[in-house]
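ARCHIVE CARD
CATEGORY: sequence design from structure
SOURCE FIELD: tokenized fold
FIELD CONTENT:
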């Protein structure tokens, strides 16, 4: 299994709007058959940080969904509209694999 995680800092006063944008992306993901994002906020740490995690059964699925969503006009429109709510330069992403995924 692979887990994609991204962390962003949301601009003060924009958290509700950014989270609504993420929920719209999840709704689109359901329609397209893509995995949904689970959102997390740290109990302590960086102010207004939002963490999103998406699980994939394998790396090929991760790559396929990334390519499909990047070519999808509706998905890209939602992603671009969410950027206005972020602190510039705050986005970071990681991908993890379970030990059983290593060959």
């Amino acid at each position: 299994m692979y887990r994609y995680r991204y962390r962003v800092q949301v601009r003060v006063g924009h958290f509700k709007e950014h989270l609504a944008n993420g929920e719209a992306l999840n709704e689109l993901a359901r329609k397209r058959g893509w995995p949904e994002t689970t959102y997390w906020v740290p109990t302590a740490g960086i102010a207004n940080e939002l963490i999103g995690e998406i699980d994939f059964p394998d790396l090929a699925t991760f790559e396929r969904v990334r390519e499909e969503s990047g070519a999808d006009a509706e998905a890209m429109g939602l992603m671009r509209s969410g950027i206005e709510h972020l602190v510039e330069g705050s986005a970071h992403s990681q991908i993890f694999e379970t030990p059983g995924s290593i060959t």
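CARD ANNOTATION: The chain has a mean pLDDT of 94. The two ends are 12 Å apart (CA to CA).
SHELF: design records, drawer C
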